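User: My instructor asked us to take a sequence, write out its structure as C-alpha cells, and then describe one feature of it. I'm not sure where to start. Here is the sequence I was given:
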Amino acid sequence: MSKKLTLAALVTRHLEQAPESCALIVGGRRISYGELDQMGRAAAAWLHEQGIGHGDRAAVWLVNRPEWLALMLGLSRLGAVLVAVNTRYRTAELQHILSASSARMLIMQPGFRKIDFQLLLEELEPATVPDLEKIAVLDAALDHDAQMPQLAGCSTRPFPDLEAFDAPDLEDNSSEQDLAMLFTTSGTTKLPKLVMHTQRSLATHADSVARAFRFDQPGAGLLAPLPFCGTFGLVPVMTALAAGIPIAVMETFDGEPAVELIQKHRLTHIFGSDEMYWKILAAMPEEARFDSLRMCGFASFQTGAEELARAADARGMPLAGVYGSSEVQALFSVQAVDGDRQERCKGGGFRADPEAQLRVRDVESGELLEPEQSGVLEIQAAGNFAGYFNNPEATAEAVDNEGYFTTGDIGYLRRDSSFVYQTRAGDAIRLGGFLVNPAEIEDMLRDCPGIAEAQVIGADVDGKSACVAFVISGPGIDIDAEGVRAWLRNVIAPFKVPARVWFLDAFPVTESANGTKIQRAKLRAMALERDSNTNP
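Assistant: Let's start with the prediction itself. The C-alpha cells for your sequence are:
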C-alpha cells in the first residue's frame, strides 16, 4: 500500500504498528506517536472551530515545543497553511510576514527568555495586516495577571491545552497538492520572500532524507536544537517523524544540555552550524567521547571546517557537509560520512533523492558545464518549492520552463554524481543559521537617522560568522557606531545587527561603461584589516 504524502500522514503511518513508540522527548517527558497524533487532531478541531479552513494561512510564532508540531499536523489535516515565523524577528519583519501571507490567525506565546512577543505585537500597525482576525496565545492560563495582547481589529483568545481538549475528530481531507507551508527567505528588497511548499514536496523530501541520511536504521534518534521555523531546523524533524524515531526537542540550543541529551538518550543524528558544534565540544567532559552518533550534518558556515571536523572526530562526532535552502529544503544532499575529511567538510555531497536533477551553468555564457567546472547550480527535484507566494515575477525569474530552480549558488559536479557547493553567486551571508541577503540590512541602515549610504558584507568576527557594515554619514545628525547598532536592534532580528560598523567618506568603486560598481572584495580586505586592529 502506497504512503499518503501529507504532513499528517507522516505520523499516522506509524499508528497501526507502533502507536506507543516515542515521538518527542521534551524535558523529562516522553510523548508517543499516538499522543502526538491526538494533539494534531485536537489542534485541527480547535482551528476548525475558529474558522480556519482549507487554504487559510495561520502564522505560528513559537519556540520549539510540541504545540508547534501539533499545529503543523492539525493545519495539514485541514488543508490549511502554516506560516513559519522566526522567533527572532522584530516588529517590521513580523508585520511584513503577516501582511504578505494574508494570515487570518497568529498563534504566539507571551514571551521567551529575553523576547517580549507581546511588546513586539503592540508595536505593529493594525492597518498593515487587514486579513488578521484572531490572535491565539499559548500559556495564557499560567499567569492570571498577565494582560492578553491586543491589536485593533483582532480578537484574542487563549490557545487550549491540546491534551485536554475534548472535540470531535475531523476527517483528514487534505490533498498531497495542497499548499502546506510558507518559509521565509531573503529577497532583493529589505524584507523576506515567502517560499511555498506543498504537502507532497515536504513529505516526499522527508522520506528521501530518511533513507539517505540513515534515519530509518534501528536505534536512530534525533537531537533537534535548531528553530522549527527554518528549513534547517524543521526538515530533520519532519524526517524523524517520517522514519518513526524519537526526537529530543530543545526550545533553544545550549551546549551542556545538548551533551546530556545525546548521552542520556543515545541519539544518533544532529544537524547544525559550526558554532553549535564548537559549543558541544566545549561542553563535553575532558576525554569524553560520544559512542552513539552516526551523522552530524553541518553547513560549513565559517572558516576552519577541517579543524572542527578533526576535533569532532576525536570526540565521536562524525561531521559531514550538507546543502539546502528554503526553496529545495534543507538536507538536499550530504557528503559521505566515511569519506576523506577534507572532502566531507565541503557543502554539497550526494543527493538525498536519487531522482533529483542537478546541473551547472556557466555564469557568463549560460552554457551547461561538464563535471569539475564551476558555475551556478540549478536543481529540479520532487522536494522543490511551488514558487514564491503572491510573487509570480520572482518565481518566473527563479524557475525556468523546465522546472529547474536557479539557486544563485556556485559549485561544481564531481564525476561520482555528487557535487560541491563553493559560495553564493551574490553576496548572501549566513547569520544565526539563516541565509540573509545583505540588502535587507543595508536598506534598514539607510533608514537610520544620520546614515546616507551603507554596504554590508560577511566576515569572521571573534571566530564567529557575522556581518559588518561600512556606512557614509548624512548631514545634520551626529551618530556613532554604537548608536547605529542600538537603532538597528529595535528594527531587525538581533542576528542581523552588524558586529562592527565603520564610517567611510566614500566606498571603493570601479568605473565601467555600465556605471560604477562597489568593490566588495576591497571592503572585505578593509574589514579584515580593521577588525585585526579593533578591541572587541
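For the description part of your assignment, you could build on this observation: The chain has a mean pLDDT of 90. Try explaining in your own words what that tells you about the chain.
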